Amino acid sequence: MRHDLNSEEYRELQIRYRNWGRWGAEDEIGTANLVGPETVARAVGLVRLGKVYSLALPLDRNGPQTGKGLTGRSNIQHYMARDGGDIAAAAGDEPQFDGTDDLVQLYLQAGTQWDALAHAFYDNRMYNGRPTTDVTSAGAARNAVTGLVDRALGRGVLLDVPRNEGVEWLEPGRAIDTADLERCADQQGVEIGPGDFVLVRTGQLAQVRARGAWEDYAGGPAPGLSVDAAHFFCSRDVAAVAGDTWGLEVRPPEGDLVAPVHVLLMVNAGIHIGEMWDMEELAGDCAAEGCYEFLVVAPPLNITGAVGSPVTPLAIR
Amino acid sequence: MRHDLNSEEYRELQIRYRNWGRWGAEDEIGTANLVGPETVARAVGLVRLGKVYSLALPLDRNGPQTGKGLTGRSNIQHYMARDGGDIAAAAGDEPQFDGTDDLVQLYLQAGTQWDALAHAFYDNRMYNGRPTTDVTSAGAARNAVTGLVDRALGRGVLLDVPRNEGVEWLEPGRAIDTADLERCADQQGVEIGPGDFVLVRTGQLAQVRARGAWEDYAGGPAPGLSVDAAHFFCSRDVAAVAGDTWGLEVRPPEGDLVAPVHVLLMVNAGIHIGEMWDMEELAGDCAAEGCYEFLVVAPPLNITGAVGSPVTPLAIR
Amino acid sequence: MRHDLNSEEYRELQIRYRNWGRWGAEDEIGTANLVGPETVARAVGLVRLGKVYSLALPLDRNGPQTGKGLTGRSNIQHYMARDGGDIAAAAGDEPQFDGTDDLVQLYLQAGTQWDALAHAFYDNRMYNGRPTTDVTSAGAARNAVTGLVDRALGRGVLLDVPRNEGVEWLEPGRAIDTADLERCADQQGVEIGPGDFVLVRTGQLAQVRARGAWEDYAGGPAPGLSVDAAHFFCSRDVAAVAGDTWGLEVRPPEGDLVAPVHVLLMVNAGIHIGEMWDMEELAGDCAAEGCYEFLVVAPPLNITGAVGSPVTPLAIR
Amino acid sequence: MRHDLNSEEYRELQIRYRNWGRWGAEDEIGTANLVGPETVARAVGLVRLGKVYSLALPLDRNGPQTGKGLTGRSNIQHYMARDGGDIAAAAGDEPQFDGTDDLVQLYLQAGTQWDALAHAFYDNRMYNGRPTTDVTSAGAARNAVTGLVDRALGRGVLLDVPRNEGVEWLEPGRAIDTADLERCADQQGVEIGPGDFVLVRTGQLAQVRARGAWEDYAGGPAPGLSVDAAHFFCSRDVAAVAGDTWGLEVRPPEGDLVAPVHVLLMVNAGIHIGEMWDMEELAGDCAAEGCYEFLVVAPPLNITGAVGSPVTPLAIR
User: Within a domain: residue C87?
Assistant: First the structure.
C-alpha cells in the first residue's frame, strides 16, 4: 500500500530511526557494525546443501542502463587491451606463451550493486551527519563502500512478496509496506533480526524476462518499498536491504517524497542498500523447499572513496 | 629452487597435465568443475570463529601499476559523475534527497584479481584447445571469467613459504618448487586435494610495505612459483592457485621459459590463477593458531567476455 | 540514382582507381599527397570576407550515437576531475588561484570526424595493400590519422545537392551518383580538381533538426553517395570527401555492396573521408552569395595510431 | 627577471586589467571577441608560402603526464573497439568491406591544448565574475571552451625568447617579463596588437629532446612568464597566449603567487591560454627568414561544457 507522509511525519520518522553517533562520531558503516564473528558463524551454519547462487546480472552492453535519465549511467563498456588477434599477429615460429588483457569503463551502480552510505544525502547531510564537502571529485573521504569489504556477509533472508501474494510479479507502482513485509515473513515462517541481509523480491526481473526487453527498468516505474517499510527494517536493525529493481523504492514515488527509503535507511539508520540483485533462481528453490534463509556473501570491490560498487552476491544454501 | 627445463621436458609436462576434453569439448572452467555442493559444504564446515579477512589490496591511483612495461596496465581511475559539490550547488530551500554517483576506468587485472582461462595462450591455443579467434575485441567468446562466478569458493589452504623457512619474505628471483611446497604443507600439517583453493604466500607484500614503495612490484623481479611447482598443483587437481605477487611465477623466469606456470596450470590443466592477493593479516593469524585452512569466497565480477576480474577475496576462519 | 554493380564491375572499378604504389610503397596518406604549399596558398587566396564557420556538431551526450548497432559507438562522455564544487570546498581564508580539470571517453568517430585510411579494409587489405596485422590493439602501425595533421587544409568546395534540386533535403535511400554531382557542380559554377576538399551536402541534418530528434541518424537509412560517385571523385584526384551524414554513403546500400564508396575512395584511391560535418549555415551563405568555394582547415588530433579523429572543421570565406 | 608582488600590488594589477562586463554581462570569451572578419582576413593575408606547421605533440602513452602530481592527469589511453585481428577473424570466403574503430580516454589538458576560461578561478570567481557553481560535474555551464571553436584563428606572432638571447633554451626558473618580451619583439621587428595570437617560445621542448626524456616537464620547474608579463599581453589586448611548456608560467612560482599569469590573463582579462604547443620547427623557419608572423588556426574540439581541449594548432606561412 502506498503511503503519503506529510513533511512533519517524514521528519519525525527520520529522527526516530537516526543512528548518528550510535557507533561513535567516527563511524562510517552504520548497521554493518552489527555484522561480526557471531553473526557470521551463525550464518555459516545455515548452509546445508552447499548449493551456490550468483545473484549478479551479466555486466555487458545489453544491461539496463541507457546513458540518459536521472543519472545518465551507461552500461559497462569492455575493451581488450590485447586480444587473440594480437597474439596471432605477434606469434613467431617457436610456440610461446602470450596473454590477453582487458579493461572496462564501469559506472559502479550500473548493474548488480551496493550503494555506499556516501551515496545518499538529505538536506546536504549523509550518514552520521557528514557534509557534502566529504564527497568531492576525489571521491568520498567518509562513508565509502570500502567499509563494507569484510562486513558484507551474514544471514540472508529472502522475502518473496509476489509469490506470497500468489502473483508472478508485482506491477510497477505497487508499494510494499511494513504490513506486507510482516505478512510475508510470517507466512514464510522467518524472523528477521539485527545484522541480517534482507532480500526483497518484487519479481520485476521476471517481468523483464517475460517481455524480453529492459524497457524502462532503469529509472522507470517499478514496484518497491514504501516509505512505511522503513519501520520494518529500521526497528529490526538489519545490516542491509537488497532489491531486484533499479532503485529498491516504489516508483513513481509516494507523494512528494524523493527516495524516502534511501533517506531513512541510508542517511539516518546507516543501513546499506543493494540494487538489481537477481533473485529469480534462488527464489524458486527457496519456495520449493520452504526455506528462506541462507548464507549471503557479497563483498564490494575495495575501491578507495567509491560511493557504490558492482558486486557478485552469492547466496549459499 | 630454480628449474630449467629443455623444450622436450617442457612439452612432455604440458601433455602430462593436459585436461583438454576431461570435462567435455565444451568445458570452459577446467578444475573449477571440481567445485560443487560437497566441496562447498565441507569448506563451510571449516569456519569456527566467524572471523573474516579481506584479501583485496586497495583499488586506487596509489596501486602498483605504472602504465608502462609488459602490459601497459594503469591503476584504476575513479571519477565522480555527481559529488557533494554538485549536491550543494543544486540544493534549494527545501531539504531534499540527492545522490552521488561514480565510475571507474579499470584494467581488470590491475589489482587483486582472477585470471580467466581466456587470459593465457600457448602456441595460439588456450584451455581446451581453443584458438585465438575466440578472443576478439568483443571479448572472450569462450573461457571467460564468468564461468567462475558461482564456483570461486571452497576450502582455502595457505602455504606460508617464508614463515615456514623462518624468513620475513622470499627474495625476488627465489623459485618455489614442489619440494618446497610439500615441505611447507607437511610442516604446517595440511594436505591439499581436489577442488582446493591454494594461497601461496611469498611475503613480497611485506617487503613492499617495509620499504614503503611499490617500486617494480608490478612486472619486476619477484619470488614465485617454479615451473616445477606444476607437479604439486596439477597432480592434486586443485581448483585454483593464488599468490601475493604480480604474476604468481618467479621472475626473472627460469631459463627461456615464459610464464610456464601459466601455461601448465591455465592452458593445460585448466587451473585458475589469482594474483596480488594480500595474505598478510590472514597469514599472521594462521600461524598464531597453527591452522592453515579456511573457507574462501572470491566471486569475480560477472563481466561478459572478460579475461580477468578484480575481486575482493574473503577468507573466513 | 542507385547503381547495382555486379562483382566483376565492382572489381574492375577498384582496380581502375587503385593508387597503391603511386606515391611509393611507404606512402600512408594517398591523395593527401596532392596537398602542398601551392594548393594551400591558392586556397588561402579564396578568403574574401574573413567569415568563419565551424562545421562541428556539439560533442556531448545528446549526440547521435546509441551504443548499439553496427559499431556500438556511444556518445562522448565528459567527466570533471576537478570542478567548481571542489574549488569551493578547498577554498581557504585567503583568496587564491584554483583550476578545474576534465577528461573524456571518446569514440573517435562518434561525431564530426575524419576516417583515417586505416579505418577501411576490403578483402583484408587497406590502402597501399597493407594487411590486417598492421592494425592491432596497439593501434594502426600504418595509415593512421596522424598523416593528416598538416595536410587537412586546402580549397573547399560545397556541392549542395538538395538545394540544387530544389528540395530541403534528400530522403533516406536517395543515392547521389556522378551525374548528380556533375549537374550540381555545373549549376553552381564550380570545378573540382586535384587536392580539393569536397563537401557533399544531403541536408539530412536539416531533416534531423526539423523533426527534433536524431532517431536512426547514426546507422539507419540515409541519403548519400552511390558507388557510381566514385568516378567523380577518383577521376578528379580530390584530397578528401566529407558528408553531413553518419557514413557518407547511401543507406540501405545498393544491392550487395557493403560500403563500396569507402572501398573505392579509401582502400583503393587513398581519398580520406569526413563524416557528420555540419554544413547547414555554410550552405545557406554559399547559396546567398552564389559562391561555393572557400578555405577549409580541419586538422585531426595527433593521436598516434588512431584510425579516426574528432575534428572541428573550419570553413573560411 | 623574476618579480615578487605583494598582495596589494597583485590586487591592483587584477583590477587594472579586469575586462569583466566589457563585452556585456553574458560574455564568455573575453578578448576572443576581438577576433572577427577583419582580423581573420588580415591574418590570411600573411600567408605567402603555403607552408603548414602542426604545433601538436603526439598524443600517446609516451606523453609527458605521469598520473601523479598537482593534477593527476594521465596520458591519453587509446583502445581499439575493432582492429585488424577482428577483421581477419571475421573474414569469410567472399572478399568484403570491414572497418576498424577506436576510442580514447583523454584528459583534455594532457597534451597540446587550450585552457577554457572556465579552467581558471581566483577567490572562487572565474572570468566575468562567474561563481564556482557554474562548473559542476556536469561541466562548465559558462566560459566553456566551445566559445572558441570559430574564434581560434588569426594573426600568429612568435616571440622566440631564447633565440633572441642567443641560447638554445631558457633554463627552468627563468622568468620572462614585459621588458624581455618588448626587447624580443623589437629585435624581431614585430608589433603585437588586439586579437593577435602570441606564441612564446622558451625552448623547453628542445631541452626535453636533447636529454631524451620528459622527466618533470609536466608540473616541474620550467621557464615561463613572470607575473610582470601580464602588462605586455593585457595592455595589447591579445586574443590568446600560447607557450611551449606545461603551464606557460615560470615555475617555481615567484614568491607566494600561485599561477598569477592564469589569474591576470584568464580570470581578469579573459585572454585564453594555450599550453604545450610545439614551436620548434616553426621557430627555426621563422628565424631563417627573419619573419615571425603567420596565420594560426587552432580550433578546439566542440565539447559541450569542457574546461579545456586538445588541439592541433596549425601555423601557416
Answer: no
Assembly ipTM: 0.98
Contact D227, D257 (CB under 8 A): yes
In a domain, B93, yes or no: no
Q: Which are the contacts of D38, defined by CB distance < 8 A and separation ≥ 6?
A: C50
**Given the DSSP bridges, would you call strands B293-297 and B272-275 parallel, antiparallel or unpaired?**
unpaired
- Write phi, then psi, for B176 (nearest 5 degrees): -100, 120
Find out whether B135 and B28 touch, Cβ atoms under 8 Å: no
Detail the DSSP E strand segments found in D25-119: 52-54, 77-82, 97-99, 101-107, 113-115
- Phi/psi at B121 (5° precision): -125, 150
Torsion, CA C107, CA C108, CA C111, CA C115, rounded to 10: -140
Tell me how far CA of residue C109 lies from CA of A109, B107, C112, in angstroms.
27, 23, 7
Distance CA B51, CA B43 (A): 15
Chain A residues whose beta carbon lies within 8 Å of the beta carbon of residue B36? 50
**How many B-D residue pairs are in contact by the CB < 8 A criterion?**
45
Measured in angstroms, the CA of A46 and the nearest CA of chain B are apart by 10
Residue A276 CA, distance from chain mean position? 6
| Residue C131 to residue C127: CA distance in whole angstroms | 9
Task: Kindly report the number of other CB atoms within 10 A of residue C252's CB atom.
Answer: 11
Q: Which value, to the nearest 10 degrees, does the dihedral of the CA atoms of residues D191, D192, D195, D197 take?
A: 110
Question: What is the C-alpha radius of gyration for chain B, rounded to an integer number of angstroms?
Answer: 20
With CA atoms as reference, report the closest residue to A289 among A34, A36, A128, A51. Answer: A51
Which of the four pLDDT bands, split at 50, 70 and 90, describes residue C71?
Answer: confident
Chain C CB contacts of D295 below 8 Å: 44
- Is B101 part of any domain? no
Q: Please list the residues that pair with A57 across neighbouring strands.
A: none
Residues 95-124 of D with CB under 8 A from A: 103, 105
**Contact, B218 vs B66, CB < 8 A?**
yes
Burial of C306 (0-12, 13-18, 19+ CB in 10 A): buried
Residue C94 lies in a domain: no
Q: Which of D72, D83, D105 is nearest residue B137 as measured by Cβ atoms?
A: D83
Range of the domain at D309: 7-68+108-316
What's the number of domains chain A is made of?
1
Give the burial class of A24: count Cβ atoms within 10 A of its Cβ; 0-12 exposed, 13-18 middle, 19 or more buried: exposed
Residue listed under C-alpha cell 611447507: B184
> Which CATH number belongs to the domain containing residue B12 in this structure?
3.50.30.50
| Residues contacting D254, CB < 8 A, separation 6+ | D2, D3, D4, D5, D175, D226, D227, D260
pLDDT tens-place string over residues D253-286: 999 999 999 999 999 999 999 999 999 999 999 9
Query: Given an 8 Å threshold on Cβ–Cβ distance, is A136 in contact with B84?
Result: yes
How is residue B107 written as a grid cell?
584494467
Strands A101-107 and B293-297: unpaired
B83 vs D202: CA distance, rounded Å: 39
How far, in Å, CA of B140 to CA of B126, rounded?
11
Question: If you search the block for the grid coordinates 594548432, which residue do you land on?
Answer: D313
C-alpha A169, offset from chain centre: 19
- State which H helix or E strand residue A225 sits in: strand A224-225
Reported as a single tens digit per residue, the pLDDT across B257-280 is 999 999 999 999 999 999 999 999
A194 SS3 class: coil
DSSP state letter for B251: B
**Does B54 lie at the interface with D, CB-CB under 8 angstroms?**
no
- The structure's pTM equals 0.95
- Note whether D89 contacts A85, CB cutoff 8 Å: yes
With pLDDT > 70 as the criterion, what percentage of chain D qualifies? Answer: 100
Probe site for chain D from C11, C44, C71, C97 (most D CB atoms < 10 A): C97
CB half-sphere exposure, B89, CA atoms < 13 A:
25
